[in-house]
Design goal:
CATH topology of the largest domain in chain B: Rossmann fold
Structural class of chain A: alpha+beta
Number of domains of chain A: 5
Radius of gyration of chain A: 52 Å
Number of strands of chain B: 13
Number of domains of chain B: 2
Shape of chain A: rod-shaped
CATH architecture of the largest domain in chain B: 3-Layer(aba) Sandwich
Oligomer: heterodimer
Distance between the termini of chain B: 21 Å
Helix content of chain B: 25-40%
Shape of chain B: globular
Largest sheet of chain B: 9 strands, mixed
Number of helices of chain B: 9
Chain lengths: 605, 296
């Protein structure tokens, strides 16, 4: 029972050790520099990975280029060299992309570098628009010359109105560009960057605005003095109420057409020179159109109408103000291997902002698009790898009259265990590790089976062998004793009992002259077997001479056995050949012990 | 004739004694010259040995006789007495060079005492300009026309502090900051800017250098882990042919524990050294007498 418990304990321990080894089998390094890589004073460079310094080295030169490029771009626009300006703009876009990437790669979000990057992004938008508006303004100048020659007042009116719209836009862009100057110069000076070219671009931009205004003023004056500009077909009035609004404000655009055919005349309404609607006047020549302020940037916008009879209204406009917004993000919830990020996007007073695109940003890098529903709510699934991540919802769209907004930031620690299951529920464990574990367990089981079967076979064979052969635990030479005796039948003899003692003495007498060592051992084995049977000792083959002696302490044959063992140990372990007297003494001690055993047996019998 | 077993046992015991001696003669104390692992300075001291040698200063009074030498205090542990400060002051003013490498600000009392305007400001100096994937492996660049240092390449620092006052010789790049919250990235309240890391000042006839990172001397940085200019910088300090002194009283390079501490303690005292010699001689005499009696 005790033996089974020991075996079970060893088996359990072995399995535990195997599992411990298997868990580290994929990374068999016992020590590496990472083990003690960090102290409060320094970090072991050997434990760190080298990084390319290219990104950091590029950052300041790129920032410098970003400050210089607007200078040449605006200068080329001032001199109407649109080809060169186009190339400058492409370069500026490329540089802006580079700094965007660097801010992400160098994890510089929230720093002055990011401020610089954002201000440059806005400058790029302003200058891109300026390029488009300037190009269009130049086209209008060409068209104006052509239609002046043709003396077509309707077209010239249209050109003048569009020019007016462009003038408003260019002026608006300049105001925005001016607002950028002070903070950008301040940030740049912190990085010891030269802002001369950028500051010159402000001056050049102002000159462009002046030129556009001069041209437009002259154009308007010329239109008014143009013979035949007052249409023979009548007049077209236009008004807008209110003249100022925010996101979702409904403007009422209306007017009266008076002319030859006032009723059921088609009128086209233009906002920022883009046709917005076609409507038909009523019988009295009155028209009305509701316009909701949504997809347009903040600022001044031009408005005019044209009747189908080429009668133009005066040019008017309205102002769009930005609406302050509020963006919320609920704590992300894990669902099916992803985190669901949801929240709402509203105006400050709680009115929902519907069908508006915003972004969920993880680690200030990865952006996932989401669109608000009819109630201003949004939801976006985000996949996260193990590690610590930040999640935030952001809104920024300068093409809408909505102020930028950011939600609160959530930090999520995604552990390996939570990532162990993939969204479909399957295991994500490394297949190599699994294979190693399976191979180790398989090999262990196979080895165990092989060992147990082999052991069983050995035990089967041992039960059929003579005592000398079974006794292999004492010395390696035990098995030679019966062979030396030359008695082949004795190999298969049953366990010797008291009646074998004479046979043992015969063998001893026969062997003691030429292999005394084997002869003495034969006597010991015979005694050990007989005593083991007599005293019902377990595992008798493993008993040493002294153990046998100790176990016999309380019996009558003890004193003779002790005498035998003392001489036997001298013969067995000293390595010297005993004298003739010692040999005889060993034989007589054996006989005396055997006699005592016999007496003991008879007494108990 | 001894048996083979005796020979084998003797050899094994000899090996064990040698290993024990190696073990006892090493330590894992930060910056210790007896520490052969990455955070010790044993390689730097071997370098000094190979390039003209050095003198360990175990009593500050020993520096006073010099007038054209270099004294290194690497990772000072503070505790400067007023007498010692006076000796340092005399030492530098009579034409020597004092190099202090400190990132904990423990040399500030000494700097103040010798009349220097330089101070070491402890802080988690961090930079985008780095060599390793660790924001505290900061690169610094020459910021001077001084020909001794302007030709050096970038030096790599390891969790450095920065200095204030004096004339900066090396500064970090503009993309550096004090990472107060330790998140490894610049936050809005952590201003980017250049931070001086090696500063100099003339005092009397001598020169003072303050380096805000003693880690440039550790084995991990010395053995292939440093920047291109680190070796040049150390050569600038120690390779001028002048005697090199290393302060083992206040520098943590002299820190030792256990067996080494005992040996150093004995080495530092003439009386104890004498007692040690007498003890060894007495033991040897006793063994000789006992053996003689046994033979008789």
């Amino acid at each position: 029972m005790k033996r089974i418990r020991s075996l079970a304990a060893v088996a359990v321990l072995s399995i535990v050790i195997l599992f411990l080894i298997a868990s580290h089998a994929g990374t068999p390094v016992l020590y590496n520099p990472e083990s003690d890589a960090v102290t409060p004073y320094h970090t072991n460079p050997a434990a760190l990975e080298k990084v390319s310094g290219d990104n950091a080295e590029r950052l300041l030169p790129i920032m410098s280029d970003l400050l210089n490029t607007p200078g040449t771009l605006v200068l080329n626009l001032k001199y109407n060299d649109l080809d060169l300006a186009s190339k400058d703009l492409a370069k500026y876009r490329e540089l802006t992309r580079s700094i965007d990437n660097l801010v992400i790669n160098l994890d510089m979000s929230g720093t002055e570098v990011e401020q610089f990057q954002k201000m440059n992004q806005k400058n790029l938008q302003i200058l891109s628009e300026l390029f488009n508006e300037t190009s269009r303004f130049e086209e209008l100048r060409t068209l104006e010359i052509r239609y002046k020659d043709e003396n077509d007042p309707a077209i010239l009116t249209s050109i003048t109105y569009e020019g007016q719209s462009l003038r408003n836009r260019v002026r608006q862009l300049y105001n925005e560009y001016q607002l950028q100057e002070e903070p950008l110069v301040e940030v740049s000076s912190d990085f010891e960057l030269n802002t001369t070219h950028y500051e010159e671009s402000q001056t050049d931009f102002a000159e462009i605005v002046r030129t556009v205004e001069q041209v437009q003023t002259q154009r308007t004056n010329e239109l008014q003095s143009l013979p035949g500009s007052a249409s023979n077909h009548g007049t077209l009035g236009i008004s807008v109420t209110p003249s100022e609004g925010i996101y979702n404000t409904v403007l009422m655009i209306s007017g009266l057409y008076s002319g030859a055919d006032t009723g059921h005349t088609q009128v086209e309404i233009f906002i920022d020179s883009e046709k917005e609607a076609e409507i038909i006047t009523d019988l009295n020549g009155y028209y009305q159109y509701s316009y909701t302020l949504r997809d347009m940037p903040e600022g001044l916008h031009t408005l005019f109408a044209v009747a189908e009879t080429s009668v133009y209204s005066d040019i008017t406009g309205f102002n769009v103000k930005p609406l302050d917004t509020k963006l919320t993000l609920l704590p992300p919830e894990r669902s099916g291997g992803k985190y669901i990020c949801s929240g709402s996007f509203t105006g400050v007073s709680g009115e929902p902002l519907t069908n508006t695109a915003l972004q969920v940003v993880t680690d200030k890098k990865i952006r996932i698009n989401a669109v608000t529903d009819g109630k201003g709510n949004y939801s976006a699934p985000v996949a996260l790898t193990p590690g610590i991540h930040t999640i935030q919802a952001v809104f920024q769209n300068r093409l809408l009259p909505l102020s930028p907004a950011e939600s609160e930031i959530y930090t999520i620690n995604v552990t390996r265990s939570t990532e162990l299951l993939t969204p479909d529920g399957s295991s994500d464990t490394d297949p190599v590790t699994l294979l190693i574990v399976v191979v180790i367990i398989g090999a262990s089981v196979a080895a165990s089976v092989f060992y147990l079967r082999r052991r069983k076979g050995l035990q089967d064979r041992r039960t059929t062998r003579i005592p000398e052969t079974r006794d292999t635990s004492d010395t390696g030479r035990d098995s030679s004793a019966p062979a030396a005796a030359g008695d082949e039948e004795s190999r298969d003899a049953p366990l010797p009992a008291f009646e074998d003692q004479e046979n043992a003495l015969d063998i001893f007498e026969h062997l003691k002259t030429h292999d005394f060592m084997a002869a003495a051992h034969g006597l010991f084995v015979t005694l050990r077997n007989n005593i083991s049977v007599r005293l019902s000792l377990e595992h008798s083959e493993s008993l040493t001479p002294r153990e046998l002696c100790t176990k016999s302490r309380d019996f009558s044959f003890y004193s003779n056995l002790k005498r035998f063992i003392r001489r036997y140990e001298i013969v067995r372990y000293s390595g010297t050949l005993p004298s003739a007297d010692d040999r005889d003494e060993l034989g007589s001690a054996f006989s005396a012990t055997s006699g005592d055993l016999e007496d003991e047996h008879e007494k108990s019998g | 004739m001894k048996s083979p077993v005796s020979w084998i046992t003797g050899s094994l015991m000899f090996l064990v004694i040698i290993l024990l001696a190696f073990h006892l003669s090493a330590t894992n104390l930060e910056y210790s010259r007896y520490n052969p692992s990455w955070n010790g300075t044993s390689a730097f001291f071997s370098y000094l040995d190979e390039t003209g040698g050095y003198t360990e200063i175990r009593d500050i009074r020993d520096i006073v006789p010099y007038n054209n030498s270099v004294l290194l205090i690497i990772a000072p542990n503070g505790g400067f007495s007023s007498d010692e400060i006076q000796n340092y002051r005399r030492y530098i003013e009579q034409g020597n060079t004092l190099v202090i490498a400190d990132d904990k600000g423990k040399s500030n009392s000494l700097l103040e005492g010798i009349g220097s305007t330089i101070r070491v400001i402890p802080g988690n100096l961090t930079s985008i300009e780095r060599v390793y994937d660790d924001s505290t492996s900061v690169l610094a660049f020459p910021a001077t026309d001084d020909p001794h240092f302007s030709d050096n390449g970038q030096i790599l620092l390891n969790k450095p502090a920065y200095t204030a006052g004096g004339v900066p010789l090396f500064t970090t790049s503009l993309l550096s900051w004090i990472d107060r919250n330790g998140n490894g990235r610049p936050d809005p309240h952590e201003e980017l800017g250049r931070y001086p890391v090696l500063t100099t000042e003339r005092k009397g006839k001598g020169t003072l250098y303050v380096l805000s990172d003693p880690a440039v001397f550790i084995n991990g940085m010395w053995q292939g882990g440093s920047g291109p200019g680190n070796a040049d910088l150390i050569t600038d300090f120690t390779g001028s042919g002048r005697p090199v002194l290393v302060d083992q009283v206040h520098g943590e390079t002299g820190s030792a524990d256990g067996f080494i501490h005992l040996i150093n303690f004995i080495k530092d005292s003439i009386l104890l050294r004498l007692a040690g010699v007498l003890l060894v001689a007495g033991c040897a005499g006793c063994i000789f007498i006992i053996k003689r009696k046994m033979v008789d």
